[in-house]
Amino acid sequence: MADVKSSGNNGLMYFLAGGLLVGLIAFGAYYYAEHSSANRADVTISVSENGIAIDGN
Q1: So where does this one cross the membrane (predicted)?
Q2: β-strands 51-56, 43-48: how paired?
């Protein structure tokens, strides 16, 4: 017969594993957003005394 106390420990184990999984997914999304090439500018615009310069990389 199953012990009631071990059943409660299984619930805690699933809760911790779920929290860890959610944390890993959130960190992965943050890391991808910060390091993806979509965030890099392909055009540089500078304004100086000589006028406006636009450089398309």
Answers
A1: 12-33
A2: antiparallel
